[in-house]
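Dear colleagues,

I hope this message finds you well. In preparation for our joint manuscript, I am sending the Solute carrier family protein (Aureococcus anophagefferens) sequence together with its predicted structure, so that both groups work from identical material. I would be grateful if you could confirm receipt.
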Amino acid sequence: MASLRVALCVALLAPAAALQLSARSPLRRSAVARHAAPSPAPPPAAASAAAGLKRRVAGLGRAAATGRFGRAGAAGPLAASVSISDESKAGRVIPLLSFIGLWYAFNAFFNVQNKLILNQFPYPWVVSWFQLASGLLFVLPMWFTKLRAPPKVDRSLVLKFLPIAALHCGGHGLQVSSMGAGSVFFTHVIKATEPVIGTLVLLAFTGKIAPWWVNACLTPIVGGVAYAAFKPGTSFPLSDLVGYASLAALGSTVAFSIAKLLAKSLMGKETKQKYNLTAPNNYAFLTICSTTLLLLPSALGEGGAALAAFQQMPDQLAFARQLVACGFLYYGYNEMGFRVLDLLSPVSAAVANSLKRVAILLAAVLFLGEQVSTRKIIGSSVAMGGVLLYSLAKTKASKLPPKPVEIEVAVEKPGTWQP
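The corresponding structure tokens are as follows:
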């Protein structure tokens, strides 16, 4: 109410102030004196109404200057604006904290359930397809019932998404197969090299590279991963880095890094607005395309053996429920991740993403009982710290003003050119 009265006061005072300033102008006075005819005196009723309006405007002006509008606005317009600002901040922080909590919880329990499923059903590509397809059971009803406005899909949008979806489903399949072949803990230690892979991918495809002091922050990442994988006393101390689990995790990281680069180049702000690609819709449509692309390869590669193994299970319905629930966790943590990163600043997003990996590593130890040596704990801690340091340095570098480009133009002197 106080803000409304202030707005009314401004609306009433602005025309009067403008008229008063124009009346004081010497050009205005001379123009009026030369061209304006003398106006007749207003009638008594109009004069009294004008005097009453003048008194009201003066009263509102004093109230605006002192911030006193009676009981409702005793604290003045400043307090009203502060309370509105506090309400808007609270309305933003509460959903953000909820999204972060769900993001961490879904991510940690997905990794736990995924490992439990692979222990009894070692067909990672079929499991990957079911995890992607389970997300459709959530998003398609939301679109059909209009609880969520669907994206505007046409042939052009599908063609833009296909290469990103191919990389996404390939990266997800490699990630799942890596966790099936090795431990969840070590898979995510390897995936901590994402900044290193992302830097190399950016350099290979665009020729761009960050400043040296940003790339220097990659050193603890590489060193931490190598220290965690080191096995003293063996013929090849870094044998864990060339095993299938490590190579699959690296391949997954490469696929996701290229997909992220393509998404940034193809999915600009105008494209997202044109097709209603909000953060949830963006990931939902990516899931649809990825599910479609992965169906045939997973069926041809593991479909027959996976079906035979499923038919021999004593409780097929319980396993099917577990598989679908794991898919819901996978879809949920990705959608929550899209929502969180859409609300946070780059620095806050870097911190949140680093803490997410810590939550996964803790879940692997607590719920899966994975044995972790002191060397792996130290190496993973150094690598995670390097990821955070690199993310913060990269954010700072992005805020620096661009360097001026000097262009030299060679001018030929007259008479020196030879045909």
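For the figure legend, we might mention the following. Confidence is low (pLDDT under 50) at residues 1-39, 63-86. The longest helix spans residues 76-120.

With kind regards,
E.M.
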